[in-house]
Amino acid sequence: MNVREFFENLSGARRVYGDPYEKDGVTVIPVLHIRAAGGFGRGERRGAEPGEQPGGADTAAVAGNAMNDGEGGGGAAEARPVGAYIVKDGEARWEPAFDVNRFVLGVQILVGLALILFARRLRPRR
């Protein structure tokens, strides 16, 4: 699989909505939030700059013979559940997913702010 196919497979409804599954007459269709990013680069340099000594060698000996080349790339993908559609008896309803990590982070931020405000009230005023 090349890079283009990889990113094409990350997009579209096939990736946002998971494969539905059924149990005891209830169909569950999971829904994901997907984020992907990538970058690529290429560089090329031929010949030495005037006065430059590539690799510690004499400039005159290697002038015009220096050759640099480079390629690079990278990418990342993240998927997290946001909920599911539940289909039962012909009725569909949305059930959001509870993200414990996001909840804990929010509580930590609120406790930190409360501690800062509490410490400021305890500080004597001049």
What characteristics describe this protein?
about 130 residues; alpha+beta; 4-stranded antiparallel β-sheet; 4 helices; about 30% helix; about 40% strand
Describe the structure.
This protein has 126 residues and is an alpha+beta fold. The protein has one domain (3-97). The protein is 31% helix and 41% strand. It has a 4-stranded antiparallel sheet with strand order 1-2-3-4, with no helix packed on it. β1 and β2 (26-46) form a beta hairpin. The radius of gyration is 28 Å and the shape is flat.
What is the fold's blueprint, element by element?
Blueprint: H1 3-10, H2 13-16, E1 21-23, E2 26-46, H3 59-62, E3 67-88, E4 91-96, H4 100-122
Antiparallel strand pairs: 1-2, 2-3, 3-4
Could you write a compact summary of the structure shown?
The chain is an alpha+beta fold. The protein has helices at residues 3-10, 13-16, 59-62, 100-122, and strands at 21-23, 26-46, 67-88, 91-96.
Alpha-beta content class: alpha+beta
Helical residue percent band: 25-40%
**Which strand order does the major sheet show?**
1-2-3-4
User: How many separate domains make up the residues?
Assistant: 1
| Terminal residue distance | 68 Å
**Can you tell me the residue ranges where pLDDT is under 50 for at least 5 consecutive residues?**
58-64
Global geometry: flat
Number of helices: 4
| Series of secondary-structure elements, N-terminal to C-terminal | HHEEHEEH
